[in-house]
Amino acid sequence: MEHNMILVKPDVSNQERYVEAISTDLLESGYEIVAVRYKQLSSKEFEDHFICKNSQHLAYMTSGPIAAILYRGHSAVGFGRSYKFQFRKQHSTDKLKNILHSTEPGNEFAAQFELFFSNLNITDYHQFADQGVCLDELNEVQPRELPNLASFNLIAANNEEASSPQFRRISSLKNCRYVGYRERIHTNMELLRYRRKTDLGAGDMPEVRVLLLHDLQEYSQRIRHLKETHEVQGVVCYRPKFTLLETETLRTAILENNLLCVGGSFGEGLPGSIRASQELADMFDAHFERN
To answer: Both 44 and 94 in a single domain?
Structure first.
């Protein structure tokens, strides 16, 4: 079950009406509304949890309370993204003072969930799956957290580690969807080569190749080049170490190159601390079905 948030921006005269209309649309579309909260943000809260574009943006977003609607259902993230543009089109405003925002998976969801629903445990309100758990970066405690994830993909440091008893034991968990191994292609970047669990030790088998960047400098040119030279199909975008601005900028470059945005904790937090959406898991499944 995937969760997402829609944020209704400050509007003294229309906000209640908008919240009611959005809630009705969510229910009619088959989604369950988990909670609704209104919160007046301070300047610091807004700058810490959103990408602040300029002083006018800051003034607008702190001019009144924001209504946060937490809802759940199949592909809640994808629905929110398309619904956002549909609703904005129906209720035309200027570019800065648009009515609502749908959170993106990963870093943004985690930051804004904590801001509006600090009384709820985020592990109970996941978006879908941790798309990257690297075996060699798990500490002693983290493997015990894996069975609690909705699902996850397990990655070995190399082919040798993928044959280890520990890797086979963890990958045998029912909620482990895909497995893979890392391949260093540059000082500051690796390929994550995802395969079906049954295909990991085989030769020429279908795989999803995902780029893992350790340095974000000049990444847009690298992404374009590596897409062609290494047949890259996705890039790790949602990662605990990236700021919201870095995530948004990287995500833009990824989508401009028609690639998947992948997420994962990658040893930088508890498994599942950065989760990808149902739509991403669906894309993984569709790719392997085609091949």
So the answer is: yes
Both 143 and 206 in one domain: the answer is yes
Task: Name the β-bridge partners of 70.
Answer: 5, 35
CATH number at residue 189: 3.20.20.140
Clarify whether residues 135 and 80 are in a common domain.
no
CA distance between the termini of the chain: 27
Both structure tokens of 72: 């759940």
Q: How far apart are CA 177 and CA 195, in angstroms?
A: 9
Which pLDDT tens digits describe the chain residue by residue (291 residues)?
A: 789 999 999 987 889 999 999 999 999 999 999 999 999 999 999 999 999 889 999 999 999 999 999 999 988 998 999 999 888 888 766 777 788 999 988 889 999 999 999 999 888 887 777 888 999 989 888 899 899 888 899 999 998 999 899 999 999 999 999 999 999 998 889 999 999 887 766 667 888 999 999 888 878 778 998 899 999 999 999 888 888 999 999 999 999 999 999 988 888 888 888 887 777 888 888 888 887
Q: Are 186 and 260 in a shared domain? A: yes
Please state, in angstroms and rounded to a whole number, the distance separating the CA atoms of residues 235 and 225.
13
Cβ 210 vs Cβ 191: under 8 Å = yes
Can you give 135-178 as a three-state secondary structure string?
HHHCCCCHHHHHHHCCCEEEEECCHHHHCCHHHHHHHCCCCEEE
Count Cβ atoms below 10 Å from residue 91 Cβ, excluding itself: 15
Q: How many domains does the chain have?
A: 2
Q: How far apart are CA 65 and CA 291, in angstroms?
A: 49
